Amino acid sequence: MKLTPSKINTYLLFKLPSAYIVGVRVKQFSTTEATVAVKFRWVNQNPFRSMFWAVQGMAAELATGILVMHAIAASNTNISMLVTNMSATFAKKAKGTIVFSCFDGVVIKEAIKTAIATGDGQTVIAKASGIDSNGDTVSSFTFEWSLKVKS
After folding, report:
1. Is the dihedral of CA 26, 28, 31, 33 positive or negative?
2. Is residue 3's pLDDT more than 90?
3. How far is the C-alpha of 30 from the C-alpha of 103, rounded, in Å?
4. In contact, 71 and 2? CB cutoff 8 Å
5. Which residue among 37, 48, 65, 105 is the one 20 to 30 A from 54 at the CA level?
6. What is the pTM of this model?
7. How many whole angstroms from its chain centre is CA 3?
8. 40 and 50 Cβ atoms separated by less than 8 Å
């Protein structure tokens, strides 16, 4: 199955409804980069009148995860993927539409090639930054993905 933003957004509705309900949406992705947006709304707010950190985390994880899913699908190999570590920094209140972008597709693809060639599990670091409509970085997330070829 060819992955497209609309197919992934539909997948969110049925398999990750909490992400869909709070407004996480894939905007675009390629082999090298992915963009996911989420708009500040009542349903995803925290008590401080900004976007809840976990909502930002869902969007950031999806931005990195799409690249992993896309590279796995392109490899035609059965590979498991799992987040084994995550860190985040928050620079300002998240209001309006926040766009999370990840540009680590090449690194992810190389890790998958290595996992296939060696049969050993690989760890890859992928970063996603959330930018508001003013061009300011709101938050930055780093995800450590574990990749293993299934036997």
Report:
1. negative
2. no
3. 10
4. no
5. 105
6. 0.95
7. 14
8. yes
Residue 5 CA: distances (Å) to CA of 9, 10, 82, 110, 132:
6, 9, 21, 23, 21
Phi and psi angles of residue 55, each rounded to the nearest 5 degrees, phi first: -65, -45
78 — phi, psi (to 5°)?
-80, 105
Closest-CA residue to 138 (of 99, 96, 102, 91): 91
- For residue 86 the two structure tokens come to 């995550």
Helices (H) and strands (E) in the chain, counts: 4, 6
The string of pLDDT tens digits covering residues 83-135 is: 999 999 999 999 999 999 999 999 999 999 999 999 999 999 999 999 999 99
| 12: amino acid identity, one letter | L
How many angstroms separate the Cα of 97 from the Cα of each of 35, 118, 119?
A: 12, 42, 41
Residue type, 75: S
Give the sign of the dihedral formed by CA 38, CA 41, CA 45, CA 51: positive
